[in-house]
Amino acid sequence: MRDMIILSTLNARYSHASLGLRYLMANLGEFESHTQLIEYTIKSDVNKMRDELLAQSPRVIGFGVYIWNVNETLALMQAIRAAAPDVVLIVGGPEVSYEYDEQAICQLTDYVITGWGELTLPKLLAQIIHGPKPLMKVHIGEQAKLADLKLPYDFYTDKDLTTRNIYVEASRGCPFKCEFCLSSLDKTAWAFPLDAFLAEMDNLYQRGARTFKFVDRTFNLKPETGRRILDFYLEKTHAHPDDPVFVHFEVVPDHLPELLKTAITQFPAGTLQFEIGIQTLNTTVQKHISRKTNLTKARENVEWLRNESHAHLHVDLIAGLPSETMESFAQGFNELYTWGAHEIQLGILKRLRGTPITRHTEDFAMRYADAPPYEILENIGVSAEELANFKLFAKYWDHIANSGRFTQTLPMIVSNQPYERFYDLTQHLKAQWQRSHSIALEQLYIEVANWLTARNPEHTEHIRAAITADYIASGVQGKLPWMDKGLTVQTRTQKAKHGQSRQERHQSE
To answer: Does residue 11 carry a pLDDT above 80?
Structure first.
């Protein structure tokens, strides 16, 4: 009987499918036939996972470890070690690729693979199973030539294609050096052979995949490559307009040549989404984090995308960066709001292991949490209280602005001072509930209305009309205090955009 191997990870949620594990599976060589890929989520029960994994009688279990699952993976590995001490444990992934000597999970495991794993894992397995036993605990991952890697897309099951996000990559690495990002450690970006990649995408499409999320950091870095990929999905969309694809890309904000624009304009609404990293609009902060975005060009491109295309747009901002105060962040937020993106995704700086952001720790008194996700707690320019209030702001911004459920009301909320007015609203909501989760949507509508009418009592009728329109459009079944009639299943069916995604809600404005 051959030795059983298991590759596993704990995803943030079920809809996420691990691309990294599938790359490892595809490149295991002789070990592929007796390896199982088993995925869980960070909410899965530890004892149930342990029992399911050990029921396969594995000799080796390898875990993919990330910032979002390191604690849960450690707990699972401890349970496995206690129940089956002879099982060989291997860990790999971004979280254990740096500073591994000080990590409890690396102390517990038998072997650590840092960085790329496709070539290194099968070599390590050969030593474990065939001998001689590896002498070293830590194995530095060998970077493969992308043309030599077997692509992993056959390891998405039919169920994956219909129930989960399908992650794909046309390239790896990043030429930029943003100091908060692990990709800053890459020397450049490397492209997979395009013909082979598109053949795999066609196979996924023929099997039923319709949602494709690209993990490339710089999709539009090479316009000719980007255009061919866009044309591939355009052809599918035009051939079957009643069965469209949905494609998500991360794009460089200040690089949108005409070659890409002419393709982008042809995508219908609901088929194309861009995630656009801005991170800061403070040029001094940009220099401190080695970011070189041309903000004038970035604004022109975002505005062009909003006005001339149907693409759904996310723009990203990060609070807590070195030399960024909350005052300058607010100024940047107010400016970014005028660019017209559908969503502003707000994040807080994290000290990812291995990133060069640590060079600023002393100069800017950067203090981070010791536990994942290692968020900034305070620095010389931003207090702990300010960051706590920002996190509340970010959660409510997602609930209200990014959700697309307040399209009529949002302009009234933000007026000509988006950050200041929304901050005031979040403080009002905090006073009501002391939390930003588990709040009924109906109650959120009521309190937003209360806040608006308290500041503009002369516009109460107009405010309630906007809130009511958003409430009906949200698909909620119920009744706001000032409504004559409650919403029924029938009125909801007639009037509501019930069941729409947030992208659809934004683009039906």
So the answer is: yes
